[in-house]
Amino acid sequence: MRLSDESVRDHESVIFSCFLPGENLQEHRMVNHSLVLVCEGEIDITDGARNLTVKRGEYVFLKRDCQIRIHKHSSGDTPYSAMSIRFKRPALRNYFRQLSPDNLPSDVACLKSAAVKIEPNLYIDSLFASLRPFLTNNVEPSQEFLDMKFSEALGCVLKIDSAFYPTLFDFNEAWKIDLMEFMENHFSEDMSIEDFAIYTGRSLATFKRDFARLSPLTPQKWLIERRLEKAAELLSEGLSVTDTYIQVGFRNRSHFTKLFTAKYNCSPSSWKQQFK
Q: How many C-alpha atoms does 171 have within 13 Å on its Cβ side?
């Protein structure tokens, strides 16, 4: 991931980003749902065997906790720039509490694709038009303004397709701990999938069923991928291989080395050497 020439202004729920011509940014996992408008340049998205290109003036919705590859690049001499609205769990919960149960759609499946293009309409166009001055003039928006735009963005998305309801509000069973949030906070701990099920208030079968709604990966594969991603980050920061595999939750160094090498095409030691 190259960020040296990128300008990113993160305002909790709204992100303005741009970088110099020729630069690119690759990500492999979205932590939050995001609604993105490409202002300049393009985004190429690979979701398994599916490829999607989002061009200037187009919108795309990106699901959280999905394994995807994103390539953001400039178009000619024009730098890439975009505006993104992130839908974080706490804010989604607050919004969900205000919804009337009578207005919630029933028997609707969540979105299957990790990336979905959104057709422009008057509501979404006006939403991002109101954000653009803050991108072009480098002005800090107030928190009240951001909160208002977050609610407006949610309303726009929910009007487009009822499938966004189960996709965005995947915590609507109040007696259960939010599954993905718990795993994100505890993935590096020495816990089995059975342990994760117990601590999130589910039977193992229910845990696996609920997890399948949130990720195309099995819980075990998600856990391994997340631990390897964290391991790569720690190694690049200078942590030793021994301390790294223990810290991210692996019990056996040889097993960790085998999985890491398969994912990144080099051993943990070689990966660490690249950043010296």
A: 18
In a domain? residue 1: no
Report yes or no on 173 lying in a domain: no
Q: Which domain holds residue 88?
A: 6-168
Q: Given a cut of 50, is residue 62 above it in pLDDT?
A: yes
Place of tokens 């594969």: 221
Domains in the chain: how many in total? 2
Helix locations, the chain, DSSP H: 89-97, 122-136, 143-160, 164-168, 179-186, 193-199, 204-214, 219-236, 241-247, 253-264, 268-273
Residue 261 and residue 267 in contact, taking contact as beta carbons nearer than 8 Å: yes
Helix (H, G, I), strand (E, B) or coil at 21: coil
pTM strictly above 0.85: no
Beta bridge partners of 10: 15
Q: To the nearest 10°, report the CA torsion of 202, 206, 207, 212.
A: -160
d(CA 265, CA 235): 15
> What distance lies between CA 267 and its chain's CA centroid?
27
**Shared domain check, 159 and 186:** no
Whether 88 and 81 have beta carbons less than 8 Å apart is answered as no
- Two tokens at 89? 């769990």
pLDDT tens, 131-155?
Answer: 888 767 777 788 888 889 889 999 9
